[in-house]
Specification:
It is globular, with a radius of gyration of 24 Å. It folds into 2 domains: 266 residues, no CATH class; 54 residues. The chain is mainly α and 330 residues long. The chain is built from 12 helices and 2 strands; from the N terminus they run αααββααααααααα. 67% of the residues lie in helices and 3% in strands. Strands 1-2 form a two-stranded antiparallel ribbon.
Length: 330
Amino acid sequence: MRAEGWMVWVVAAATAVMIARNPFYTVVVMLAARVVGLVCTRSDAPFSLSLWRIGGLILALSTLFNMAMVHVGEIVLFRLPSDWLWIGGPYTVEAGVFGLGNGLVLLTLLVIFTTLNTAVSTGELVRLTPRALRDLGVVILIALTYLPETMGQLRRIREAQAIRGHRVRGLRDWQPILIPLLIGGLERAMGVAEAMVARGYGATADSRQPLSVQLLLLVGLLAVFAGWALSFWAGWLGWVLLGAGVVLITALLWRLGRRVPHTHYRPQAWTKWDTGMMVTAVFPLILILINRDNLAYSPYPALNWPGFDPFIGMSLLFLLFPALARRERV
């Protein structure tokens, strides 16, 4: 499936998680994204993360941090002296539950973007960069390839160290590994970017943009910022202004991109599966946006059970469509 469909899937899933803020819905999205990631992983995927080990660390740190910073709630576990700066005061179950919910959101976002990284190649992601921002594409390529190349470099260094009889037992054992690891990963990412530039990526004549285009771009950015700020007080009026700014910026980028010549090597055709992926990703997001006032969950001031709408919960399972489509196509 095309990268455009995957980007819509990622944006819809991430937006749904951040808007809903309900542990039940968050877990449904996380499990759906994990299933999609397992089914749709490319054979040449650069690396795989131990998500559950990382997830345990994220949940623990998020819970402890919120308990240490927020001292609100009725069920008190213990108290620290109030004269201890920031961390002093009662440690409550409600604060821990709220921190755990934030950790679930962070873990779900990590699962979503890890799925994107393993299902879509770096080249396809860079191809989505607007042609008007062609120089930004090289920066994005370095950023996207740095972590995979660093993980591959770590594997090679550990294999070489194991042949020499070196085993990593503590922090001191990482000293001969850390510097070659960071430098090697960055060198390989830079090498990929240089190879793309050598093949003509971004090879266009630089030209100064007209003053009218610069002013319109400034107006669009100001409209986005003003709309975002106004949305907290004026509601829909702020969202309309923000949307108008986004449309203006998008139109300018599209017009500027038409001036940049480009070629497609083996373009991937748009199929019914791509359309289905976009529709099934947007459908649960629309339901959440319609019912967003009934989705909020907070354990403050007294601990309570999160609500769950079975219809919305079932709609989130539409995010499994990429996995089902992959099995059908195979």
